[in-house]
């Protein structure tokens, strides 16, 4: 599992993009109802991203040898190349960011 890719994308989508969305909406509306709506939207996006595909992608999370508890010394060259995170994972991180940033903004404003 590429932890640096996950950390980088989670910071980008959860904190930066979702934080900018919450900040911009509150700056434009000055409404707590808008923040509550963003919190609800974040929950809906999170539930959609978790249950939307219906498939479990264990192959991307771990190799078969790792799932059995065995250490593998064989490295696939494709694993060493830079890749992008899939769209549904980006949506998941954005939904988590809307939840967290929306709740934090509600606590700070209210």
Task: Give a description of the structure.
It is a single chain. Helix 2 runs antiparallel to helix 5 (87-109). The protein has helices at residues 3-29, 32-51, 58-61, 64-67, 87-109. The protein has 110 residues and is mainly α. It has 5 helices and no strands. The protein has a domain at 1-50 and 86-109.
Quick structural overview:
This protein is 71% helix and 0% strand. The protein has helices at 3-29, 32-51, 58-61, 64-67, 87-109. The protein is elongated.
Helix content: over 70%
Shape: elongated
Give the number of helices. Answer: 5
Number of strands: 0
Low-confidence stretches: 56-61
Secondary-structure element string: HHHHH
- How far from one another are the termini? 40 Å
Mean pLDDT comes to 79
Radius of gyration: 18 Å
Strand residue percentage: under 5%
By secondary-structure content and strand pairing, the structural class works out as: mainly alpha
What summary fits the major beta sheet?
Answer: none
InterPro entries: DUF8070 (IPR058383)
Keywords: Membrane, Transmembrane, Transmembrane helix
Pfam family, one: DUF8070
Protein name: DUF8070 domain-containing protein
